[in-house]
Every structure is written in structure tokens, then in C-alpha cells.
Amino acid sequence: MQVAKAARVRHAITLPALFAAATLGTVAFSTPALADFRVCNATQSLVGVAIGYRAAAGWITEGWWHIEASTCKTLIEGPLASRYYYLYAEDAERGGRWDGPTTMCVAEKEFKITAVNDCVRRGFQRAGFQEYDTREQSSWMVELTDELPPGGPTPPSPTGSQ
């Protein structure tokens, strides 16, 4: 009789402990990453995005991320390793672009390109990327809009020119 009672008490203690551990585990694994580089598309069009950054292997450009209207995508997961990142984006439906003065290489289809010089000679296209100074923060978000932000990149125009 005492053995059965002791077993019930032990069982009563372990169930809440297991429930608490399971809850904490779920919370720990369901918490979104707090550090990344995200791009949000605040337009009503599909947008294609490319990113450039300095890595141990040198300059890298990667693309294309297709970001639906009114959604966001994470381009780099985890804490940011560089201070400066560069973006180039094209409005897939209206033909405009968000660009800047820094020339880097892009390709027609999905790509990851090392080095930013001699793009055309190496079989790539050149595109002007906009610089973003993250001030060495571990996370950064860029919002693409139809409106011209003060001092920011040029928004797309209906003709695709600036």
C-alpha cells in the first residue's frame, strides 16, 4: 500500500515537471531568430531582390529572392557579419528598380557570384546596388516602397528608368 502511494506521489511530481520542460522547450524552439537581414516588399507587385556583401572569400552577390507584395523575406539568417550590405531590386510586374551607385554583378537566374569586377567579361550583367550601413547591428530590415524616402534608393518608375 505504501509503495503504491509513493508511486502516485512521484508520478504527480514528474508530470508537472515534464509539462514545464516541454513548454519551455517549445518556447525556446518556436522563438524566431532575433538577428538577420530582411527585406520587406511594401508594394503591390512581385519584387526580385539581390544582395551584395563582403565575406572572407571577398565580395559576394546573391539573388534572386522573389518577394510577393506586402510580405518579407530573410536574405541572411543569423547575426550579421558585415557592417555594409548592398541591395538591388526589380519590380517584376511594372519593370522599375531600386538601385544605387555601387556596381556589382547579377545574373538572369538564381546566382551566387564571387567578385564584383569584370561582370560582363565573366558572363554576368552589371547592376547598381544601394548601400546600407547597418552600423554593425546584428539585425537589419529594408522596406521597399513606391515612395522616395529622403536620401534613400530610387523607387521603381513605370518606365524602368530613374
Question: Can you give keywords for this protein?
Answer:
162 residues, alpha+beta, 7-stranded antiparallel beta sheet, 3-stranded mixed beta sheet, 10 strands, globular, disordered N terminus, disordered C terminus, signal, DUF1036
Write structural notes for this entry.
By secondary structure, the protein is an alpha+beta fold. It folds into 2 domains: 1-31; 36-144, no CATH class. 18% of the residues lie in helices and 40% in strands. The protein is built from 1 helix and 10 strands, in the order αββββββββββ. The strands form 2 sheets. Strands 2, 3, 5, 6, 7, 8 and 9 form a 7-stranded antiparallel β-sheet that branches. A 3-stranded mixed β-sheet has the order 4-1-10, with no helix packed on it. Strand 5 and strand 6 (97-98) form a beta hairpin. The longest helix has 29 residues, at 2-30. It is globular, with a radius of gyration of 24 Å. It starts with a helix and ends in an 18-residue tail after the last strand. Residues 1-31 and 155-162 have low confidence and may be disordered. Keywords: Signal. Residues 143-162 are annotated as: Disordered. It holds the Pfam family DUF1036. Residues 150-162 have a biased composition (Pro residues). Residues 1-35 form the signal peptide.
